[in-house]
Design a protein that fits this description.
Oligomer: single chain
Number of strands: 3
Strand order of the largest sheet: 1-2-3
Shape: elongated
Number of domains: 2
CATH topology of the largest domain: Single alpha-helices involved in coiled-coils or other helix-helix interfaces
Helix content: 40-55%
Structural class: alpha+beta
Length: 122
């Protein structure tokens, strides 16, 4: 679980708390960062969903807010990463198709080899 330090100093101008989070790990997204929370996110959930979320947060010893934000952040990063990986492979496929379309015409030697192969297979 992440180590967390929370400053109790509330900014007068924005009304937000500055949170310093230290996370252990080698992934570039898991590094020390200072975040200022300014935006608000609301969602309607069923009673069952709320109970499940409360239980999961309690099992990890976190506030519901911290649990929800970190879980959403993790999932959003995964979705964006997967999408960007898909985009990259799509670009590679387009480059491959372009290379196939620009392929040189077969030589006389290659044409004769295919003709001999066709005779052997018939």
């Amino acid at each position: 679980m992440a180590l967390k330090e929370k400053s109790n100093i509330k900014s007068k101008s924005t009304g937000s708390y500055k949170i310093k989070r230290v996370v252990r790990g080698k992934h570039p997204l898991h590094k020390e960062a200072t975040l200022t929370k300014r935006e608000r996110l609301e969602a309607r959930v069923s009673i069952g969903q709320k109970r499940l979320i409360n239980k999961a947060a309690a099992l990890q010893g976190r506030s519901v807010s911290d649990f929800v934000v970190s879980t959403l952040d993790k999932e959003a990063r995964k979705i964006v990463h997967d999408f960007e990986a898909l985009e990259f492979s799509l670009k590679e496929k387009q480059a491959f198709a372009a290379a196939l379309e620009a392929a040189p015409m077969p030589t006389d030697k290659l044409i004769r080899a295919f003709e001999r192969l066709a005779q052997l297979n018939s």
